[in-house]
Write a structure and sequence with these properties.
Number of helices: 10
Distance between the termini: 35 Å
Structural class: mainly alpha
Number of strands: 0
């Protein structure tokens, strides 16, 4: 967190080309997430939370909503997409909520089908995002929420991967799966 709020991370990596600065800058911004994951694992926090599943799921939802209400008060520092306490709180809330979510056969099938193309979506999301930004500028439309853009990019990438996967060529399956 010190590297983020002191802007040291941003100042060090921002002068490099975008291929380097976003990769290395984001790796540094992910350190608090990795440390929190280690703490949750080491202290067995998820196991303890399962005993009061509904309470912690409600707390995660409420805290997640509060981060949107206070996003102007607690500004994230300049960074490469994963900086700031608000981003960390949102991530914790999402992980806690989805970890504690009871999974039945419908949800597990849904997760299987939505995560089947994860690698393809990862490889396409920047390209699709850049084209969508150009399209938004061309038509004069700008979604107000980043989550709206993210969901739309995910849907477009998922559809592209789905159609690529349906092509009869063997090599295309290895590109998206």
């Amino acid at each position: 967190m010190f590297l983020q709020y002191s802007l040291l991370n941003y100042k060090v990596f921002n002068r490099f080309p975008s291929e380097v600065k976003y990769t290395l800058g984001r790796i540094c911004e992910m350190i608090p997430f990795a440390l929190l994951g280690c703490i949750f694992y080491k202290k067995k926090l998820f196991t303890k939370m399962e005993q009061k599943r509904v309470f912690f799921m409600i707390c995660a939802i409420v805290l997640f909503i509060l981060t949107f209400l206070f996003r102007n008060t607690l500004k994230n520092p300049l960074g490469f997409g994963y900086s700031g306490i608000i981003t960390i709180i949102k991530a914790i809330c999402l992980v806690v909520f989805f970890y504690l979510l009871p999974v039945n056969s419908f949800i597990s099938k849904l997760l299987y089908h939505t995560t089947k193309y994860t690698m393809g979506i990862y490889c396409l999301h920047i390209i699709v995002g850049n084209y969508l930004n150009q399209l938004y500028k061309f038509i004069g439309f700008e979604p107000s929420l980043t989550i709206t853009k993210s969901v739309f990019i995910y849907i477009v990438c998922f559809c592209l991967c789905f159609f690529i996967d349906k092509l009869p060529l063997k090599i295309t399956k290895s590109l998206v799966n």
